[in-house]
Specification:
single chain, 271 residues, alpha+beta, Helix Hairpins, SH3 type barrels, Alpha-Beta Plaits, 3 domains, five-stranded antiparallel sheet
């Protein structure tokens, strides 16, 4: 009878654990901006806590002293916590990432020197996919403990590019060529309008910086493709782009005292 009673207690505890876990997950998912991964994690945590309590209750029905068993479980838990402290810190960081949401799936982020699109946010690690289709896995402890740069969360980005022109170029005409070329691109926002100003006077060029706003998803494509139409616009306006020149001088010396002295010494040695 105690054995049957223990089975009944465990079965009832398991049934309650499943029902409460399912109800908790549904309740959490109804919240605004709910995260299914976070809801599933907390539901699983509640389920296993209730299952542990059900096992302890079943052992009590069997007449087993659970105080010593609980002490053993606590001791094993402390030992496991010490051995797996790195993993536990990653789990804690994963929970923080799910709670505060510094990024979501599909965002382009930079974590330290690692850059890519978020493909998975797991309990212990975050997975990124780089532009050259390489998967990068970062432990959540390093993600949460470092600087996170989210390039897409704000919806739009500003493209900054510097172009050098000749000192003889008309600056107003150059600014007009840069801004009009950027404005003609459908990916560039009209408000705020493209902007260009002189930012540096180099030894052989006048540097102008172009600033243009676009959607975050268009940033890379715009950065790669805008240089070609700008080069065409500068050529059309007869605005030169300087580049390094190397001039070599070669001089033939008809007479040299040092060379004559060396020739005399060589002749004396050979005589």
């Amino acid at each position: 009878m105690p054995f049957i009673g223990a089975l009944v207690v465990f079965w009832v505890g398991k049934w309650i654990a499943n029902r409460i876990a399912s109800a908790s997950e549904r309740t959490l998912n109804r919240a605004p901006n709910a995260d299914p991964d976070l809801s599933r994690f907390f539901a699983s945590l509640i389920k296993y806590i209730i299952l542990v309590a059900a096992v302890m209750a079943a052992l009590t029905v069997l007449g087993i002293d659970t105080s010593s068993f609980a002490a053993i479980v606590l001791g094993l838990g402390a030992a496991m916590a010490f051995v797996l402290q790195g993993s536990l810190s990653n789990i804690a960081a994963g929970v923080m990432l799910m709670l505060f949401k510094p990024f979501k799936l599909g965002d382009e982020v930079e974590v330290g020197d690692t850059k890519g699109v978020v493909t998975s946010i797991e309990l212990t690690a975050t997975r990124l996919k780089s532009s050259d289709n390489v998967e990068k896995i970062i432990s959540n402890g390093n993600v949460w403990g470092g600087t996170i740069r989210n390039n897409t969360s704000l919806g739009k980005r500003r493209l900054d590019m510097v172009f050098g022109v000749d000192y003889s170029a008309d600056i107003d005409q150059t600014i007009k060529a840069l801004t009009e070329t950027a404005a003609n691109d459908p990916r560039v926002h009209a408000d705020p309008a493209p902007w260009a100003k002189v930012v540096n006077l180099n030894e052989s060029s006048v540097d102008l910086e172009l600033r243009a706003w676009c959607d975050a998803k268009d940033y890379k494509g715009l950065k790669v493709s805008i240089s070609q139409p700008i080069k065409a616009a500068l050529d059309k306006a007869s605005i030169g782009i300087p580049y390094p020149h190397e001039i070599k001088f070669k001089q033939k010396v008809k007479s040299s005292k040092a060379r004559n002295r060396l020739a005399r010494l060589t002749k004396l040695r050979n005589s």
